[in-house]
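Re: that backbone. Tokens:
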């Protein structure tokens, strides 16, 4: 199975421990290409660099650093870096330091990299590791599950227009659950501060949020100690309201 080509990326940057753990785990089932941002790109979402030139640098055999976003890494990887090698059989993004659950996936560079691969009709999944600020991060279980899931995808294929968002609990997993996206309850607001020169600045995301109580959600699975696997679809259309919208007075 060593002939199978796998592209991996992340949003924590090329030097991240989670990326190294992912590479080591997936190297057991294929030839891994590491194409990652040169710095942390958390919260970049599906940003694609259009108004500035993109550059990449080779750091070793099948290792490349891109001066851009996770989405840039996948796009440049497929269309430039791996152009002569051919398209990879699988794209994996992670292992992210910290979970990507529920509504937060819309901000996640980790998940967006997998979205970009799916837009190119490539099988892909994103994988994230729950962390705790006062404890060292162990990526072992996440790496092992990434290998298990990768094997299944390579053998079974992926449903059309679908990617998987995977979250691994901090403690040893009790099992695996197939879940749907949870919903956050945001307190709202920002934190305002004054710098030494008397200028106002703000922090976004510094307030804690809660989650809706939903036992079938990704958040509930992680809270119960299970690996969460959420299938995501590229089509964001809300089909349930289309007929209702057609009855609105929208004529020009």
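Recovered sequence:
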């Amino acid at each position: 199975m060593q002939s199978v080509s796998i592209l991996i990326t992340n949003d924590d940057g090329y030097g991240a421990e989670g990326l190294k753990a992912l590479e080591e785990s997936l190297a057991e089932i294929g030839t891994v290409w590491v194409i990652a941002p040169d710095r942390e790109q958390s919260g970049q979402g599906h940003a694609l660099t259009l108004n500035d030139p993109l550059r990449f640098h080779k750091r070793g055999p099948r290792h490349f650093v891109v001066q851009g976003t996770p989405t840039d890494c996948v796009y440049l990887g497929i269309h430039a870096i791996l152009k002569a090698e051919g398209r990879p059989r699988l794209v994996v993004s992670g292992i992210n330091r910290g979970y990507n659950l529920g509504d937060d996936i819309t901000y996640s560079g980790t998940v967006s990299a997998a979205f970009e691969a799916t837009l190119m009709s490539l099988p892909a999944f994103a994988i994230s590791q729950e962390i705790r600020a006062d404890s060292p991060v162990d990526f072992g279980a996440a790496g092992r599950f990434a290998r298990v899931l990768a094997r299944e995808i390579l053998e079974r294929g992926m449903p059309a227009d679908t990617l998987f968002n995977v979250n691994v609990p901090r403690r040893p997993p009790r099992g695996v659950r197939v879940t749907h996206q949870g919903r956050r309850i945001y307190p709202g607001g920002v934190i305002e501060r004054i710098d030494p020169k008397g200028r106002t600045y703000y922090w976004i995301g510094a307030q804690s949020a809660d989650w809706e109580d939903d036992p079938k959600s990704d958040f509930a699975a992680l809270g119960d100690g299970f690996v969460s696997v959420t299938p995501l679809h590229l089509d964001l259309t809300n089909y349930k309201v289309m007929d209702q919208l057609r009855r609105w007075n929208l004529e020009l």
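The two ends are 59 Å apart (CA to CA). The longest strand covers residues 90-97.
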